Amino acid sequence: MTKITSEITQKIKHYLEVIEKMVYPDQHERNNTLADMGLIIFEPNSQVNALDVQSILPEGKSVLYKMDNFYDYETFVSKLIEANKSNQWLIVDCLDDFSPTTIGIIKQIGEMNKFTVLNFRNENSFQLKINPETRIIFCINSDFLEEKISYPYFLNIFGAILRI
User: Fold this and answer.
1) Looking at the whole model, is its pTM more than 0.85?
2) Which of 69, 87, 112, 116 has the most crowded Cβ, counting Cβ within 10 A?
3) Residue 84: closest CA among 54, 129, 31
């Protein structure tokens, strides 16, 4: 964990509070609410990383996942299930490009707060509804975002974006 300034800490803290409060009614399903996912982009001169973001949240409120294998959507889904079951936030440290399957999952969550994935854990079709307490925050370096992320509409998946 790096030493970050109190100003940066306050910006991240405020951003996380906003993400927590951004809940709105689902227009397609009654009695269902939707919550935005967060995206934190680290500028080239930033000393902040995903572990720093996680450390700002209260202890036990989040799970950190290092997404470092393009082909491994199953670990992402498993970590999301783990966080969702325990009402935790999932902090995703983006260290590799996203597979089409992972992008599909993220898009579904962004649109409906639930997702379906095929052929997962010996089930033909696995569906998970994100509980109202769980939030997903993606952390990524700006250089990596611009040079390595192949999905051209990646930023459009997210509501609020913080650049630090």
Assistant:
1) yes
2) 112
3) 129
